[in-house]
Write a structure and sequence with these properties.
Layout (H helix, E strand, L loop, with lengths): L1 E10 L2 E9 L3 H20 L4 H19 L9 H30 L3 E5 L3 E4 L2 H8 L2 H11 L3 H6 L4 E3 L3 H15 L4 E6 L7 E5 L2 E5 L12 E2 L5 E5 L2 E4 L7 E4 L2 E13 L6 E11 L7 H4 L2 H11 L13 H29 L6 H4 E6 L5 H13 L4 H11 E4 L10 E3 H7 L1 H21 L7 H4 L2 E2 L5 E3 H8 L2 E4 L2 H11 L1 H6 L4 E3 L6 H7 L2 H11 L2 H4 L14 H26 L8 E6 L8 H16 L8 E6 L7 H18 L8 E6 L4 H10 L2 E4 L11 H7 L3 E4 L5 H8 L4 E3 L15 H7 L1 H15 L8 H9 L9 H16 L1 H14 L5 H13 L4
Parallel strand pairs: 3-6, 3-15, 6-14, 15-16, 16-20, 20-21, 22-23, 22-25, 23-24, 25-26, 26-27
Antiparallel strand pairs: 1-2, 4-5, 7-8, 9-13, 10-13, 11-12, 13-14, 17-19, 18-19
Helix pairs in contact: 2-3, 2-5, 3-4, 7-34, 10-12, 12-13, 12-15, 14-15, 23-26, 23-33, 24-25, 24-30, 29-30
Length: 851
């Protein structure tokens, strides 16, 4: 018998195969097997209780649209529909959220309190749908309601409260902690204006304010009942009951108001909390009001005091921003510690077990004032003896440093701390005195390095070393890659590490693979799941099961088709948003990073110019390429902004040349953030990870691209070195010198290297001549001068090896099967770099939780 027709029918919640037969044999069995597989896949992907859940979501949606937003289907905008749908999804989370917090409270578990000044979470709707397992219910409900789910999701604003890698890592860690069931609460700041919007005008970066809250943020819930007062200034006075304790009487106060955001674990009924603090002026007028009696003026002064969380500050050197940043840091740690203490006291009668129930993780030195603040609370408020308070403090804190240069080692003038936080100045001096007394008494062999061990940096202006304060006050200190941790131990904390080597360790950062593969690249995720099952979603190590498929030509073909589809989708987005037509058949050569000289976008530009010259000379290159740059420069970083300008100048040169543009295009993606990254990462062929060795703490974009099957061209920096060990030298393209092989800057003469290298000299000459020919080219002269005069980031030293390895990339891409094999092996071997692994390491080696 042969099958004439077959279909999959669902009835009463069950799937049935309906088959009509006619004579035949082999074809019948083939179609039957195909339909049976289809039924299994559909059954596997269908969430339990899908019909009931869909009805609930439709009911929630209608209720929120009508009774919360006062709209019906005829008057609702796309954003109204997004809000109603988001509130519906949030309602599904509520029971799990409440039950999770109730469980932590009743079991009185040891909790991790994660302090980070930045979080870059991106859009939340789709990740939450996947984590809750209701994506199909939502899709069915959307179809029933006549709502375009893709259009609704497009209207969501990105939740990007950060400028750099710390914020991206912090966001990944929150998701992993929830998925692994770690009892954790994240703390951050609810900035009114998040990372600025980037516009490109005449090739130059222009910053625009990003009022991400102007339409509301439906994922958050305000908790005014847990607001707390934060003090500034005033005096520190002695008390009768203890000669060591003091009474701090602030002269000004600001109210910290918490907003809670749910963080859902992946299908495990755990929903953790991210608590963000917003500053609001207190209702008390300053004492000066009694003298001037000007009510309007007094209100204006109070309004200014509530500006602390108005703006996410970039790295600025101006005095007004410096004081604001310092106040912002203390506001954050004080509010968080008050909240931590309140939570602890709700479950514990005395302070004795505080270090047994509490772990506070400091994500970067900007949270270092938490050390002094906890000591103040314990000694002055809780009346704990100083020695026991210091023991508790050291037991409680863990510290991750991201410092790669001396400038990253945050310091604050002692006089400024004294003005704003007089009691904390005394506390830091006390900590330092006892710390140095211990060195002189118990480590006499280190007496000569006491100035380096001190928390106070001597000079014309004395400064507190905040990184040292965190390192001395924490039980464990780590870097975010093996290479970076060696830099911390060997350079920044060299003497502290010699004093206590067991304190210093390494935890290589990771990325949330559910966000950056399952959510960002559903076509690839489905292909993987069909091949090896769903286990990889919970445990990225299971991706190794893909490795045997490296010899499966059919699978490699489908993998290549998935990549090509992502490239075509990205090309359409570039055409729509940037007005540039790019060829999806070309190699997508991507460098999406913070714009900064140490990221060496200049090296990428020099390669483009070298290829440009070869095309102009009539040479046919190995592959057509689309060079894609994306990232933001800090507003105060003039050289970084000149790099943005230069990339756009080179884009105009290349794209406007009729001889060159068919073979090569250059694109700069403005306003690059999580939303753009979710388009770009699945589409990339070649991932540029080319930062200066020793100046990249870790880097996590290399991991995101590898999870999506991109090949990495990498310098000897950060986590690239560990990635090489896991992925294999044949599946990555490494170039350049190691940090230890770079010459000292005092000995390095870049102009001599240019003169001795004809190819380099020709490229630099082309660059300089072209820039000088531009009407506004003088704006780029400072950047060009750095190439010949100093080359601080060793761009020229690695130039030739970089070009040679780019030729290797061309040759590898020309063999489609070899390229697909390398892509697959990247995916199969990158699982170690999941943030789940990093969190497990933190939990077992530093936090002592979840065991």
């Amino acid at each position: 018998m042969d099958i004439v027709q077959g279909s999959l029918v669902t009835s009463g919640g069950q799937d049935f195969l309906v088959l009509f037969f006619s004579p035949g044999g082999e074809r019948a069995s083939t179609i039957f097997a195909h339909l049976l597989d289809e039924a299994k896949i559909k059954q596997r992907k269908k969430p339990s209780g899908g019909g009931e859940r869909m009805d609930s979501i439709r009911e929630f949606y209608d209720r929120y649209l009508r009774y919360f937003l006062a709209k019906d289907t005829g008057t609702a905008t796309i954003y109204d529909k997004y809000l109603a749908l988001t509130y519906s999804v949030r309602s599904v989370m509520m029971d799990k959220w409440i039950e999770t917090q109730k469980r932590y409270h009743e079991q009185n578990v040891r909790r991790v309190y994660f302090l980070s000044m930045e979080y870059v979470l991106g859009k939340n709707l789709r990740p939450n749908l996947l984590s809750l397992g209701i994506e199909e219910s939502i899709e069915e409900a959307a179809r029933y309601l006549g709502v375009s789910l893709d259009e609704v999701m497009e209207s969501e604003d990105s939740f990007d409260l950060g400028n750099g890698g710390k914020g991206r890592i912090a966001a990944c860690f929150q998701e992993s902690m929830a998925t692994l069931g770690i009892p954790a609460i994240g703390y951050g700041l609810r900035y009114d204006y998040a990372a600025y919007r980037q516009e490109i005008r005449n090739g130059q970066q222009i910053e625009k304010p990003y009022d991400w809250l102007h339409k509301g943020h439906p994922w958050e819930i305000i908790r005014p009942e847990y607001s707390c007062d934060i003090g500034f200034g005033g005096t520190s006075e002695p008390v009768d009951w203890n000669p060591i304790a003091r009474s701090w009487k602030p002269s000004d106060k600001v109210v910290a108001v918490p907003y809670d955001v749910p963080i859902a674990g992946y299908r495990n009924d755990t929903v953790n909390t991210l608590r963000l603090w917003s500053a609001r002026a207190s209702e008390e007028f300053a004492p000066e009001y009694l003298h001037h009696n000007d009510y309007v003026r007094a209100c204006e002064e109070k309004s200014n005091s509530g500006m602390l969380t108005k703006v996410l500050f970039p790295e600025e050197t101006v005095l007004r921003a410096t004081e604001m940043r310092l106040k912002q840091q203390y506001f954050f740690v004080s509010a968080s510690l008050q909240d931590i203490m309140r939570r602890y006291k709700a479950d514990n009668a005395t302070i004795d077990d505080f270090d047994k129930k509490v772990v506070i993780h400091i994500n970067g030195s900007r949270c270092s004032l938490a050390i002094a603040e906890l000591m103040r609370i314990l000694v002055d408020v809780e009346r704990v003896p100083w020695e026991r308070a210091w023991q508790i403090t050291q037991n409680v804190f863990a510290y991750t440093s991201y410092a790669v240069t001396r400038d990253d080692m945050e310091t604050w003038p002692v006089y400024m701390i004294a003005q704003l936080f007089p009691r904390h100045m005394e506390t830091i001096f006390d900590i330092n005195q006892r710390h140095l007394d211990d060195v002189r008494t118990n480590h006499k062999d280190m007496d000569s390095v006491v100035p380096e061990l001190s928390l106070v940096e001597e000079g014309e202006v004395k400064r507190f070393r905040m990184g040292h304060l965190a390192a001395v006050g924490a039980s464990r200190v780590n870097g975010v890659s093996r290479a970076h941790s060696e830099v911390l131990r060997g350079r920044f904390f060299k003497d502290l590490a010699a004093l206590n080597p067991k304190k210093f360790g390494s935890v290589t950062a990771g990325v949330a693979h559910r966000r950056w593969l399952l959510c960002a690249n559903p076509a690839l995720a489905d292909l993987i799941t069909d091949a090896i099952g769903e286990g990889w979603i919970r445990d990225a190590g299971d991706l190794s099961q893909l490795e045997p498929m490296v010899d499966d030509a059919a699978f490699l073909g489908v993998l290549s088709q998935v990549k090509q589809s992502a490239k075509e989708s990205f090309s359409r987005a570039v055409k729509l948003h940037c007005g540039i037509a790019i060829d999806p058949e070309s190699v997508f050569d991507v460098q999406s990073k913070k714009i900064h000289p140490y990221k060496r976008q200049l090296l990428h530009v020099l390669n483009i110019l070298s290829r440009y010259q070869r095309i102009k000379a009539g040479e046919t290159l190995g592959q057509r390429r689309t060079h894609i740059f994306a990232g933001k420069a800090n507003p105060s970083d003039r050289l970084a902004k000149q790099i943005v300008h230069l990339v756009n100048v080179i884009a105009d040169l290349v794209n406007g040349d009729a001889q060159v543009s068919p073979h090569m295009k250059v694109v700069f993606i403005p306003e690059y953030g999580t939303a753009w990254a979710e388009r770009l990462v699945p589409a990339a062929d070649l991932s540029e990870q080319i930062a200066t060795p020793t100046l990249e703490a870790s880097g996590t974009s290399n991991m995101k691209f590898a999870f999506n099957g991109a090949i990495t061209i990498a310098s000897q920096s950060g986590s690239n070195l560990e990635m090489l060990e896991h992925v294999g030298a044949e599946n990555m393209i490494m170039f350049g010198r190691q940090g230890s092989d770079l010459p000292a800057r005092t000995e390095y003469k870049p102009w001599q290297l240019i003169n001795q290298t004809p190819k380099l000299a020709a490229v630099v000459d082309l660059l300089e001549k072209h820039v000088r020919s531009l009407p506004n080219g003088s704006a780029l002269f400072p950047l060009l001068a750095t190439i010949r005069d100093s080359d601080e980031y060793y761009v020229l030293i690695d130039f030739q090896d970089y070009l040679d390895k780019q030729e290797r990339a061309d040759k590898l891409y020309s063999d489609k099967n070899a390229w697909a094999r390398a892509c697959l092996l990247n995916i199969a071997r990158i699982g170690w770099f999941s943030s789940d692994r990093a969190i497990r390491e933190y939990a077992t080696t530093m936090w002592k939780v979840g065991r």
